[in-house]
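INFO batch 0412 | record 1 of 1 | parsing
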Amino acid sequence: MMLQIRNFIIVTSFIIAFFSCSNHELKPANYVQWVEDPKNGLNTEKKIGDLVFSIQYKPTDYIVLQQSQKPIIDSSDYYRIKHDIEGLLYFNFSISNTDNSKSPLYYKINSAEEFQYRISYFSFEISNDIHLVYNNDTFPCLLHHFERTYDLMPKVNIVLGFEKPENFIENEIEQDLQFVYSDKIFGVGRTQLIIDKKHIKEIPKLKISTYAAEN
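INFO prediction complete | emitting tokens
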């Protein structure tokens, strides 16, 4: 009897371990929530003085859902959108004050001209000062979009796309993703933020409907 109980515990533990290591499948809304949940490690931040620099890694399937804007995605839409966007690695990069009181566009600002320069810099130039490091290789920022919030949100938010490393597969990732920003605005110098590879490997699978009407 004791041997049977022991064997049952061993088998049960093996099954639990197997499924906990397997990436589970989530419906679109749950997938988005999982990606954006800080507990899952796809975003990280660093405080430097009065400023907070943070990044959010956005998996390819997350971008597909953003482009689709549908609660359910079928295979036709999924593969059509994925084909158009999968050549890049996507991030959100944000800068905020530690007290969230005001946009960092006003941080230690001295003139209206300086404010306009910051708008211009984040709109057109910042991509030159950002790169991604993976497996000791450096990858340039190929796409960036500065989201003007007109003081509705007390932060700077920029959507970024980097050249994707050759043969990059999320659940087979070999090294951490290192995001590097060489600041020219706030006097903080070089800032590095890291997304741990183990969190990228844990990204769940997206549930794709066989038929558009499927729940």
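INFO post-check: The longest strand covers residues 137-147.
INFO record closed
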